[in-house]
Amino acid sequence: MTSDAEIQTALPAFASGNVAVITGGASGIGLAAAKRFAAMGVKTVIADIGGVRLDQARQAVAAIAGDDAV
Question: Which residue, 34, 32, 28, is CA-closest to 46?
């Protein structure tokens, strides 16, 4: 079993240079995942069928990581 400390130590190395593609990213778990990945420094692609909510989600994630990361 991997400890929480081991996971937290490994996350920055995992995040470096990676891209996350999140489907259903305008709300719920998808949005939470997009925010988490963005906070870790992962470039994040968000996809969803909800146009207005998707734009709001993009703005929220960009506020965390910057426009170039979303």
Answer: 34
Closest to 70 measured CA to CA, from 40, 48, 50, 43: 43
| CA 53 distance to own-chain centroid | 16
Q: How much of the chain, in percent, has pLDDT values that exceed 70?
A: 77
Helix extents (H) in the chain: 4-15, 28-39, 51-65
Token digits of residue 9: 């130590």
What are the residue boundaries of the structural domains of the chain, listed by start?
4-69
Query: Residue 6's pLDDT is what?
Result: 62
Q: By the 8 A CB rule, do 45 and 34 touch?
A: no
Task: Report pTM.
Answer: 0.76
Tokens of 30: 């998808």
Q: Contact at 8 Å (CB) between 28 and 46?
A: no
